[in-house]
Write a structure and sequence with these properties.
disordered C terminus, 36% strand, single chain, 3 helices, mainly beta, nine-stranded mixed beta sheet, eight-stranded antiparallel beta sheet, disordered N terminus, 29 strands
Length: 465
């Protein structure tokens, strides 16, 4: 009798928990009631209880859009896509006639059956000039194998305030803290194929599309079961970052906290602060902007730092060259070139000639410039924002890129001094061994954008990231 009673209690509790999740079907399985088409002329139809999208030539991206907008929610759907086809599901998206002729803009859950394997990543549709990829799966490589080609796949999107998380077949894919948009419609995308006759008639199908909008906070996945989180917002700290002692080094609006590395004040040219970005524009491709006030030049923090974790989001373009330096001593280099310090190289490895110089790739992206190479196989996405991180704990230093450790080293010892002695820095006394130093963003005469530049000052050589 006790076992029966216990079983009934368990069943009742289970029913109460599952029943409390008030899911709403967005697709009734019979017709497209509740949806409307925007953008291109791809064909949408209902076949065997699913929505089928079919490609046609010479039309822009097509979207089947919900007639309602949604803010905080959990969205689930299943999809099956033809090999080689690109698609996605929009959420918190908009279409405004006065903006780019009504083009659909907003977050997109990527559907990507290509060998790249970015299904479940997050793309910023319609905002390619500034963001494009928000969370490519190079940021979370284990998730690249979650997609099942030729089969039905189950997707999940969780939106609660500035927190957005995605999952594919139960695998955590993307996880961002982002303040770009708080609400909007949901849409099923059929990507344009241009004039490619071979791709005409490709199909993608969706089914079991449902949404939960009530008491979302009670049903989101715990953070420890999600993908690595990236703060992709416009220069604001998440509540967790604030509680953990992080501080912004760039407020997104002013040059406060930064000055020229060569003269008083902030550069009047080359650098621009706009749209929440700290941008150095292409001028002459030369290091340090020729050290002329009217040309710009490097910028450094007003104050030096000792032990810290520094994070910075950067975006580079074809043949770009820039860098983030630390342990910089202002006034060390009185010549034309950049101030001297250890450098996290920021470079287009494919197109900039400096990538082929140095030794064993020690001038490539993420390297400790001219000293220690970074791996060739590293998580980086061109024309998207990538996150660099530098960790300094006493004499121990690490370089990270998009959540992956690229290299680490110990300074202030015989091996370090020998390494410096065989580099371009051998002429600079005590290079890399200073206890404190400024942080520097380099003007190398090439285009580079920075945002979310933030620091956590460490009280000791022991920290958790």
């Amino acid at each position: 009798m006790k076992r029966i009673l216990l079983s009934l209690i368990i069943i009742a509790c289970s029913f109460q928990l599952t029943g409390a999740q008030e899911w709403t079907d967005l697709f009734n399985g019979r017709n497209l009631k509740g949806w409307k088409q925007f953008g291109g002329k791809a064909k949408y139809s209902v076949v065997d209880g699913s929505i089928k999208g079919t490609t046609v030539k010479n039309t822009p991206n097509s979207f089947l859009v919900t007639k309602k907008d949604y803010s905080d929610f959990i969205l689930e759907f299943e999809f099956k896509v033809a090999p080689g086809m690109n698609s996605g599901v929009q959420f918190r998206s908009v279409s405004e006639k006065e903006v780019d002729n009504g083009r659909v803009r907003g977050y997109q859950y990527e559907i990507d059956p290509s060998p790249r394997g970015w299904s479940g990543g997050i793309y910023d549709e319609g905002n390619e000039a500034e963001r494009a990829w928000i969370y490519p799966l190079e940021f979370n490589r284990p998730a690249k194998t979650a997609f099942r080609n030729g089969e039905w796949n189950k997707a999940r999107v969780e939106c609660l305030g500035n927190r957005i998380r995605t999952f594919l077949n139960g695998v955590p894919c993307a996880n961002i803290f982002d303040d770009e948009r708080s609400s909007g419609f949901i849409a099923l995308q059929v990507h344009n194929i241009g004039n490619d006759e071979s791709k005409v008639g490709q199909e993608i199908s969706w089914r079991n599309i449902r949404i939960l909008t009530a008491d979302v906070a009670s049903y989101i996945t715990p953070e420890e079961k999600c993908a690595p989180m990236f703060n992709t917002s416009g220069n604001i700290l998440s509540p967790e970052e604030e509680a953990d002692g992080w501080k912004l080094l760039f407020d997104g609006k002013t040059s406060k906290g930064w000055t020229s590395a060569k003269y008083e004040g902030f550069p009047k040219k080359s650098w621009e602060i706009a749209n929440g970005l700290l941008m150095v524009h292409r001028t002459n491709g030369e290091e340090g902007g020729y050290n002329a006030k009217d040309m710009g030049g490097d910028i450094i923090t007003d104050v030096p730092f000792k032990n810290f974790i520094l994070k910075f989001d950067f975006r580079i373009f074809k043949a770009s060259n820039s860098g983030v330096k630390y342990f910089v001593q202002k006034g060390t280099n009185t010549g034309i070139g950049s101030e001297i310090g250890c450098e996290f190289q920021v470079l287009d490895d494919e197109h900039h000639p400096d990538a082929k110089l140095g030794v064993n790739g020690n001038r490539r992206l993420g390297a400790l410039y001219d000293l220690i190479p970074a791996p060739e196989d590293k998580p980086f996405v061109m024309r998207a924002f990538n996150q660099g991180m530098i960790v300094v704990c006493g004499n121990h230093v690490e370089h990270w890129l998009n959540g992956v450790k690229l290299l680490e080293y110990e300074r202030g010892n015989q091996m370090w001094n020998a390494l410096v002695a065989y580099s371009k820095y051998k002429v600079w006394p005590n290079f890399g061994n200073f206890e404190t130093g400024h942080i520097l963003l380099q003007d190398h005469g090439d285009e580079a954008w920075y945002k979310n530049v933030k620091i956590k000052v460490l009280d000791s050589a022991v920290t958790q990231r």
